[in-house]
Amino acid sequence: MSRSLLRLVNFPLEAANALLRWAWGNELLPRHQAPLPVVSVGNIAMGGTGKTPLVVALAATLLARGARPAILTRGYRRQGKAPLVLRGDPQGRFREAGDEPSLLARMLPQVPVVVDANRFRGAGTALALGATHLLLDDGFQHHRLARQLDLVVVRAADPLGRLSPRREGPWALWAASRVVAVGEPEEQETAAACLRRYHPLPPFPAALRAVGWIREGQRQELQALGGQRVFAFAGIANPERFFRLLSQLGAQLVGTARFADHHAFSPAELAGILTQADRHRALPITTAKDHVRLPQTVADRVAFLEVALVPLAGSFADLLVPLG
């Protein structure tokens, strides 16, 4: 999509969010205070920035400090409406809870994931569960719940979201406590230069790294991917990045299949993927977020890659310093 067309597509949503930000900033609309510290993690562009890995990293940092974090999310595109709490691997519940909440619950079994479109009510649920801190997933455009920290994640390769559908323009970054730029070291300097106009603090640099892969329920070393024949499929914002990562890890891609972000795989699509993999004598492999959307009978036959966000300077605790 050309930049001019993107600007045309983005304008209505950007304008609406700018108006809402102005209204809440001028106290024309009520904002609710939760009785525990709230850290919001969000973005201005849609999808693929590294928001979920940052939530995981912050939760792990809080756990290491002896805190009891809970994650609050609305459950994007979930079919269920009732509030629910996930603990541990919720395989098979993604339609009810959403794929990202399901992934967060799997990756952080000791952290309750509260799925509730009413964020203030969800904060009360988290407090009742004994939480000391609340991580508000995808919260930058959600103003009703006050927060002590507003962290915004951007792609270092496109920090202003000029190449993606966008919820808000870069001027909204002034409202962030800190901008986290996710990308390779060589991209960070350019990202910092672009963001200097929109935020007084330098962006916090971080990168996504593969940390392992799971096959038949067993964790494997990354080296074991070297030379492995794989048929890769993904329904995320940027499937090509996943395929490139597999190649960089030494896997031999014999075929790939791309789907839209948050895609709900049909039985026919999954049967086709498994048939293709068998035909090429290859291992079917996908992302961790896609894997939680698979029925158990298929999930047992499909490997998935685990990635984590790592700081390129400092530590994630630096982002939490304002909390004390």
Portion of residues in beta strands equals: 15-25%
Shape: globular
CATH architecture of the largest domain: 3-Layer(aba) Sandwich
CATH fold label of the largest domain:
Rossmann fold
CATH class call of the largest domain: Alpha Beta
Low-confidence stretches: none
Number of domains: 2
The N- to C-terminal Cα distance equals 44 Å
* Helix/strand structural class: alpha/beta
Number of helices: 10
pLDDT average, as an integer?
Answer: 93
How big is the Rg? 20 Å
The percentage helix is 25-40%
Which H/E pattern describes the elements?
HEHEEHHEHEEEHEEEHEHEHHE
**Largest beta-sheet details:** 13 strands, mixed
Number of strands: 13
Could you walk me through the main structural features you see in this protein, from its secondary elements to its overall organization?
By secondary structure, the chain is of the alpha/beta class. It has 2 domains: 3-208 and 311-323, Rossmann fold; 209-309, Rossmann fold. It is built from 10 helices and 13 strands. Strands 1, 2, 3, 4, 5, 6, 7, 8, 9, 10, 11, 12 and 13 form a 13-stranded mixed sheet that branches. 41% of the residues are buried. The mean pLDDT is 93.
List keywords for this structure.
31% helix; alpha/beta; 324 residues; 13 strands; Rossmann fold; 13-stranded mixed sheet; 2 domains
